[in-house]
Amino acid sequence: MRKRIDLVHDQVEQALLNEVETLRNCQDRLKKMHEQSVAQLRNNRASQHELERDLKSKESALGIDNMCHQLNNFSRGINYYGGIDKFDPTNRIIQRSQNERSKSQQLRSDIDNLINACANEIWNAWNATNNGLTRRSSETLEAKSKLQMHLHKVQQEIFDVEKNMELLRKAIMDKSNPMKVAQTRLEARTHRRDIELCRDDAQERLVKEVQDIGNSIEYLHRKLLEAEAQHQQLLKTKANLESDLQVKVNSLFIDREKCLGMRRSFPITATIKY
Q1: Pair 172, 224: CB distance under 8 Å
Q2: Exposed, middle or buried by CB within 10 Å (0-12, 13-18, 19+), for 210?
Q3: Cβ(22)–Cβ(121) under 8 Å?
Q4: What element of type H or E holds 126?
Q5: How far apart, in whole angstroms, are the C-alpha atoms of residue 170 and residue 179?
Q6: What DSSP state is assigned to residue 73?
Q7: What is the pLDDT of residues 181-239, one digit of tens each?
């Protein structure tokens, strides 16, 4: 999953949510159409059953009518019969069959239109998500390149600061022996006797030399502290850049490899065959 600054509700996530909503909406509409199809199929089978039963009745009636056609005044078995009603439901059955066929034809047309409409809606949502992922990947790749460039500059600055720190430490070490010499000279001159133990020109110069070397060492220590503080800040910046770079690499892998990788082909077809 995305991390830290990239874990945001961006346009890609909005497109994905819209795509999910579109898919669910299409599923609901297709389920309703499926229920209508099942009901219509049930009616068609009922009408077919009535037609088949009526056809058998017609075949039986045809045999009876042939027998009746052969009856005459001299035929056996003729007699009086009362309470005979005439009822022929054939027209009603045929009318129902025609109605069901008409409904089925309209339903097939509605199904075709619905599937094509859903396919177009899903395609548009799918394409919008892919475009969003592509744009997001390009933006992430650009940000990754900028971070890498900035990181390279910071690493170079760290190298320069570390080199400067080494030079400062060496300069401080180089001041050590001259300071020892000057202080040793001062200490040795304290052993002069009587009137020779005075603050002469040589003494003044030695004192000034010690002060100058001390000031120089203090200045170098101050610069070293500043360089060390700068070095720590650069290391912190480097760590932040590396962390941000890792986030971008992770996000780029998710968007470009995992998401776009599984969305290279549209996973639906609107082709319908009967």
Answers
A1: yes
A2: middle
A3: yes
A4: helix 90-189
A5: 14
A6: T
A7: 877 877 777 777 766 667 777 777 878 888 888 888 888 899 999 999 999 999 998 98
